[in-house]
Design goal:
Pfam family, one: S_100
CATH topology: Recoverin, domain 1
Keywords: Calcium, Metal-binding, Repeat
Distance between the termini: 37 Å
GO molecular function: calcium ion binding; calcium-dependent protein binding; transition metal ion binding
Number of helices: 5
Largest sheet: 2 strands, antiparallel
Order of helices and strands: HHEHHEH
Strand content: under 5%
Structural class: mainly alpha
Bound molecules: calcium ion
GO cellular component, one term: extracellular exosome
Radius of gyration: 15 Å
Number of strands: 2
Number of domains: 1
Mean pLDDT: 84
Low-confidence stretches: none
Strand order of the largest sheet: 1-2
CATH class: Mainly Alpha
CATH superfamily: EF-hand
Shape: globular
CATH architecture: Orthogonal Bundle
Helix content: 55-70%
InterPro entries: EF-hand-dom_pair (IPR011992), EF_hand_dom (IPR002048), S-100_dom (IPR034325), S100/CaBP7/8-like_CS (IPR001751), S100_Ca-bd_sub (IPR013787)
């Protein structure tokens, strides 16, 4: 995250945050919470990704219970191939899932 953005989010008070700002802050908080589990605190390991999917996206990703599916998903998330999912890779996943849900909702 850029220094400017970092400054911006750390000076927002909860009372004045809009829903979108809150959602963005929650994304960061969720990533940080799970990334702190093991190894680097700036990235998610495969085990951390699995825990995050199971706890935070149980409805969307029932397949996360299948180890093969987690492997597949992890590989598709890890764009730069370093076996860790960093924040930008995590955000891409959330954005992709959000788009998938949005499309599904609008094609009724
Ligand atoms: Ca990576």
């Amino acid at each position: 995250m850029s220094a400017d953005l970092f400054f911006f989010f750390h000076h927002l008070s909860k009372a004045t945050m809009t829903q979108l700002e809150t959602a963005m802050a929650m994304l960061m908080k969720t990533f940080d919470t799970y990334a702190a589990g093991e190894g680097s605190k700036d990235t998610l390991s495969k085990a951390e990704v699995k825990t995050l999917l199971e706890k935070e996206l149980p409805g969307l990703l029932k397949s996360a219970k299948n180890p093969g599916e987690v492997d597949k998903l992890f590989k598709s998330l890890d764009f730069n191939g370093d076996s860790e999912v960093d924040f930008s890779e995590f955000v891409v996943m959330v954005a992709a899932l959000t788009c998938a849900c949005h499309d599904r909702g609008s094609k009724k």
